[in-house]
Amino acid sequence: MADEPKPTSAAQNEEDGHTEPSEVETKEAVQYWGYLFKADKCGTSKLDRLLMGIAKHITTTTDPNDDCTDITPHQLATFYRSVGGNYDSLFLHKPPASIAFIYKSLGCSHSLQPSDLTDPYSPPSVPALKRHGYVTWQTIQLLLEPAEHVPFLQTAVHKFDIIDPDEGRRFPRVLPKEVLPSKPDQDMLTWFESVSERLRHDAQALSRPPWDSADDREYETDERADAARYFDHQMRRE
């Protein structure tokens, strides 16, 4: 079993050629963005548009495929590396069924794509996030681990041309930390822990007979246990 994801900090400013914005630039950026979460913990429409723009950037710059605009695990792993993270152990080393179960548990809409994108007849098994599914995924990560994920977004808007899908213009290069959470959201942590506990319980129940098929039991237990390990690891990091 591969280790759980160990994201690093955002790319170093020196490596990106990034310079800290001036006080005036920061103030103007805060006014432009506004706080990007509403009271109900949902992202504002501007955050959703930013994340949709990032989703399009991911699918059009990493292994683009005209037949699929959903984000594969390889594409997402590549994106996180490009902004200073490392989620290879989740998106490249976990079985596709386990990744799909994690997406399902988090409510992230996704499709199943052929394992060989050059062969349309290969069986669909690779979970790929819909763009709205990526918005859900990244919103959850921002609430759970802002210390990791806020710098990822800051690096993305500074480093890449992220286009507002509604207005067709590039988002500003400056994304101040003041417009995003500064600490994990307690309600999100509580919900995340409840999902983790349910998955642990389900995995334990499925490991016990009776089952009609030993193969089905092993498959269901493995994907739930793998997902439970992911959730447990995330909770231990808090």
UniProtKB/TrEMBL annotation:
Residues 34-195 form the DUF7514 domain. Residues 1-25, 201-238 are annotated as: Disordered. Residues 15-25, 222-238 have a biased composition (Basic and acidic residues). It comes from Eremomyces bilateralis CBS 781.70. It comes from the Eukaryota. Pfam families: DUF7514. Transmembrane segments: none annotated. This is DUF7514 domain-containing protein.
